[in-house]
Design brief:
- The chain is an alpha+beta fold.
- The chain folds into two domains: 2-67, no CATH class; 109-208.
- It contains four helices and four strands.
- The protein has a four-stranded antiparallel sheet.
- α3 (110-149) runs antiparallel to α4 (161-208).
- The longest helix is centred in the C-terminal third of the chain and has 48 residues, at 161-208.
- The chain is elongated and about 115 Å long.
- The model is unreliable at 5-25 and 215-221 (pLDDT under 50).
Length: 223
């Protein structure tokens, strides 16, 4: 009976040993040097080396990977912040490359870029021209109003309310047109600034692509 129990125990021990050995062969072993300078190996991550790198070694003896030290909460937060910043930088770089590609597709040459600038400025000039024409019309109306006020030159207070209202409306309309024209002139400056900034970038992209932009030496006419 006793011999039978011993044989059964031996079989269980051999099976457990074989299982551990099988796991070690599959996962490899961990190796590190602890704070005291001792080299430690184990079939699982080593607690004594939690604050330092550990090498996971394949059964063949090659290094499968290096497991970094466990981080404190503060170190983990700092690492996460560093990872976020790196991700944001990568996202910005990817977005910049996407914009560069779109810019090159839209403007394959200097000629195309100059043409679109000229068209954009021409549209603004047409709007300014219409506003200037309206300002001229208002100036003519003002002369007529001033002529009517001549009858009340000696006593302007006797001028009828309708005439005074015409004068106020004329002054208000002239002010509106002046502000509108000023806004359009500012818009022309913004358009030119945008095209200038694009051109600086495009010259770099064209050069990187080995292309010679057409009319590159010709100055851009700005209205």
């Amino acid at each position: 009976m006793q011999m039978r129990v011993q044989m059964m125990a031996a079989v269980v021990w051999i099976a457990l040993a074989a299982g551990v050995n099988s796991i070690a062969q599959t996962q490899g072993i961990y190796s590190c040097v602890d704070a005291a300078g001792r080299k430690i190996t184990a079939d699982r991550p080593i607690a004594e080396c939690i604050d330092r790198p550990q090498r996971q070694i394949n059964p063949s003896g090659t290094v499968k990977r290096v497991v970094g030290p466990s981080l404190t909460a503060q170190e983990k937060a700092a690492q996460e912040q560093k990872d976020r910043v790196a991700a944001e930088v990568r996202a910005r770089e990817a977005e910049e490359k996407r914009r560069d590609r779109a810019l090159l597709l839209r403007y394959p040459s200097r000629t195309v870029h100059d043409k679109e600038r000229a068209e954009a400025l021409e549209q603004i000039d047409e709007v300014i021209k219409a506003a200037s024409k309206r300002t001229t019309e208002l100036a003519g109306q003002r002369k007529a109003i001033d002529a009517d006020f001549e009858f009340y030159k000696s006593d302007p207070a006797k001028a009828p309310a309708s005439l005074k209202r015409r004068l106020e409306e004329n002054d208000s309309s002239v002010a509106v047109q002046k502000r509108f024209i000023a806004d359009q002139e500012a818009e022309k400056k913004r358009v030119n600034m945008r095209f200038d900034e694009e051109l600086v970038k495009l010259n770099q992209l064209w050069a990187m692509g080995g292309a010679t932009p057409a009319a590159a030496a010709a100055p851009t006419a700005k209205k």
